[in-house]
Amino acid sequence: MDPHFPSAQRALYDSYEIKVPGRFQLLYDRLVFHLGNLQLRRLEQYIHQICQRFQLKGKKILDIGAHTGYNSFLMQAAGNEVSALDISKHIDYARKRYAAYGMRFIASDALSFLESADTAPFDFIFVCNFPAHYDSKQIQTSPYAAAFFKAALGKLNPDGKLYYAFYSEKHNKVDHPVTEEAMREALQQWGIKNFELGSRKYADNNNLLELVIPAAQH
Length: 218
Description:
single chain; alpha/beta
């Protein structure tokens, strides 16, 4: 559990600029504590499963779309060297909250960072629900998406993997989900032939569409 809890979860709520009148502050604090405790535990289970599945220990990891940094913190705590990247103001919170844990914090657009000649390769690139607003048509036609995958694969070590997870059409809370068929067609268009793609249910009971692409494209 985050030693700064409930601050980690409060940052998530505050990031959406929820205004709480003073007389409701105690109720808000209790809500944050109980809902936050549940969500943070689910994240812990999810990241634990990811680290076990891909044998992530002693690895150099890039977390793209790190937001307030909790996933990055968990992977760092598992014995990895993590770089947390986000273009939003949330990376400033992550930097302050987890400064003592040896993580690297990057305030940048993902594509610009990946395309930079100064960026060293990683063993594992972790991308969860980023970018979150593509639907099935947009994922196939977006120049950014195509450039992003190309750049990400170019920043993997020879045995590295790109892990990309996002909510699929089976998750009813997403307005514009990406279907598995659309993702396969997009990968084919981009010339990516060696990959694993399928739905997986994790500890939070959400159906994630997972894409795993090794650096080596045979």
